[in-house]
Fold:
Amino acid sequence: MYLQLARPEPLFGHIFGDLEGFLVTFTGQQARLRRPDSGARPNELDDIRQRSWSYPQKAEKAAEYLVSQAQKERDAYFGVHLFREPSSRRSNNALPTVGALWLDEDGGNYPKIGPEPTAVVYSSVNRRHLYWKLTHPVSVEWATAMNRRLAVWAGGDTGKAGAASVLRAPGTANYKRHPKVDLVVGEITGSGPWDPEVMDQAVPKAMPSEAVPENAFSTARTEPYDGPGLGLEEFLDHVEVLDEVADSLGTKLAIVCPWIHDHTGGDRTGTYIGQRTDGGLWFCCNHAHCAGRGWGEFKKKILPGFRLKITRPGYTGNMEVRHGKRQERRLRARNR
Structure:
């Protein structure tokens, strides 16, 4: 049945179905509205607030909260996946199953030959979030992998494929282009629900290399590493680590991106750092704003370089060496 979405509750019921858990709401105000002379970028959010609501018991209160936040000129989002415990959007807190798939087109274009979405939310006039209600729950791992395939196929945001993603709720407003304000609306299309096997067969498992966004895969080195011996721990004091991720090639950690303010809605998912078993360090962020950024850009961002003058007696090499802060502490201690 076709249904216009003017409030969040119908969409909650559509994508969560009979699942029970905690629904996350995420709100913030455009920094340009709070600090007009700060030079803040569009969609840089201040005063971020995250809350958890037991679902389905408090679904209506969560919806009312999102709408009221929008009326206060705050951008309002909700977690598209439920969680086991409140106050955490970490992937290891996600419910083990989901009842729907999702896609942030983010300027892309979902192919018309694909399975028709069962729900569409217009985050602005030209931007859409798509959902596919499934005939039965599937594992969260399968769903997030399928979400990435959908995003690659559509040229959308692969960073929103994860279980911790937040998207805009119908019945709220988009202040990203303030003073222009876009009302967030949507519709239940009447299509589906879709059998997961049908979705798996319909969505390509691989695309030609020229059709895959540059940021859809890691920019990590794969050839043998023969550089200086550095440890990943050297950099962990300067990032927020969310979780460790299994990786047969070495160590892989999910982190909060140092460029998170460039992510749509301040999304904290889709960013990783790691170290290969042969020692090579790498960085990868699946968000479109971070396309092309690799380990070099990451290191410069979190460890701004400086020049340390070496005065150790008898030293005849370069008198100034560029280091990060942690290396500075070690060298100063060594030279005492």
Observations:
- The mean pLDDT is 82.
